[in-house]
Structure to design on (639 residues):
């Protein structure tokens, strides 16, 4: 498998898992067929559309290449008909979300570097594409976005993006090492979930005891 | 009327009805003058700005052609001063919204096809532009977006977009047939509202009986 | 200081104050370190990313020039560690927000004019960039956006944008006069806050007495 088809496979896998994550969350909210497909579609393709606009790849792949929307729609429909029992939905969403986070972070950082975006901007764009899908899914479903909650989320994505930029800089880029970077994101995110790792919170001097986060 | 001025008229009519729909919804929330104009502006022009970025028409018409913002602002102001009684506001918003959905779906699908976007992508972009205005309006006003509720909404838009792409492919495109496609969207949407058509909902195996949609 | 470095300084100052405003609001919601930095980042750079896409400056400065994200991140971190006592947070957010509104309105209107956007579109884009940061901040934190509330907000920004476009048209543009336009926005906004100026609200004929705004 050459590097450009590996990138396509990684990208489409990310689309599929984010669509499944968005679709599962929409099923949990009891949305109808089109609501489930719509949330899956936006969760899977929203981040990539923004990325393609930023690196001036127009029209974005979500519109220029039918395999992208087809993958998102098929994955959302699969979730609609085959979704797991309600008590396992939350775990399913979180697991798929972590996989999509890893895949999108890696493919988007690579695409940004290819388009000539400087390393710092490429890492930020990779992270934003990675977290964008889950962010939009949560906003649409009226949840506080997962990225703003206490667990390590954006930082897992940022670590992966920095790993990709470093591999490219060192000349060690290959399908194998980039897959490793995607796995790194997945493992950090899942471990943070299970161990309840969390980032430091601000100390408030005003004597506040209520927690509105 | 030649085809490009027909496109302009259809686009501006869509801007006016979506601005009126956004403005009416904002009046219902008792926002002030600028809030009403702002929600009307974003509902009318937000979808088109995204569309123009995607097809690389920059700056987007909302900024490049003063008739677009002027139409949105005048329509919002008209709603502010002339708005109907409160008990008719909801029906007004839904009717204007259905008209805007039809107009924007048709004009945006045509613009995307003209810009060389493939047929599948053009239909999706036409649908997203059509539903984008109402989506942003509802997010700003802290409502669950109408597109995610139970009635047929996105599917009416998608039918219209597919009709437009088919007409173009068959060489049957004209002001008359495209107007028919816009009417199709309007009629499907309004009929769905009155008949309470709805898309299938997921069956949940976990014994859930509460409905959070 | 020549005019292009003045524009850079004004832009980075706007980034810093909007990041501080977003970070302070996130601290008030008790978000963790990464949530605070993320909200600060998006509040500071979101409006400018949209502006750069609209005027076809790609990749947007937020990704192309590392000083932009660095400024946003440092300002957010500073707020995280040095934030004022809780009882002064709301006032801090409002003051920083007014300063950012003035700076972004002026720099974005100038950039749009430089990019060849017509005067009406440039004023609208300057206003949208100015109000965009606070809008996204409030949406992320699940607040009704400040721009939709009763105080004069968008109108202060629009006045500043019209002042900038007029100064350019009259040939009176200079660092001094543009700084005056930014101050105008700040003073109008702060005065409106202290005097409780508000825009007119719609009269509802349906006998509604409850206020849901």
């Amino acid at each position: 498998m050459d590097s450009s088809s590996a990138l396509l496979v990684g990208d489409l896998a990310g689309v599929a898992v984010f669509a499944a994550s968005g679709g599962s969350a929409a099923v949990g909210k009891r949305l109808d067929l089109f609501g489930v497909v719509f949330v899956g579609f936006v969760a899977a393709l929203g981040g990539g559309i923004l990325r393609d606009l930023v690196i001036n790849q127009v029209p974005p792949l979500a519109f220029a290449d039918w395999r992208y929307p087809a993958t998102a729609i098929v994955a959302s429909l699969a979730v609609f008909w085959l979704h797991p029992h309600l008590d396992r939905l939350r775990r399913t969403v979180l697991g798929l979300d972590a996989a999509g986070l890893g895949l999108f972070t890696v493919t988007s950082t690579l695409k940004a570097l290819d388009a000539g975006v400087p390393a710092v901007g490429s890492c930020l764009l990779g992270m934003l594409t990675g977290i964008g899908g889950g962010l939009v899914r949560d906003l649409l479903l009226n949840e506080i976005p997962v990225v703003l909650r206490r667990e390590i989320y954006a930082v897992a994505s940022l670590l992966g993006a920095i790993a990709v930029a470093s591999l490219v800089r060192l000349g060690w880029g290959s399908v194998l090492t980039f897959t490793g970077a995607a796995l790194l994101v997945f493992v950090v995110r899942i471990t943070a979930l299970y161990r309840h790792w969390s980032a430091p919170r601000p100390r408030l001097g005003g004597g506040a005891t209520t927690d509105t986060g």
Q: What stands out?
A: The CA atoms of residues 99 and 186 of chain B lie 6 Å apart.
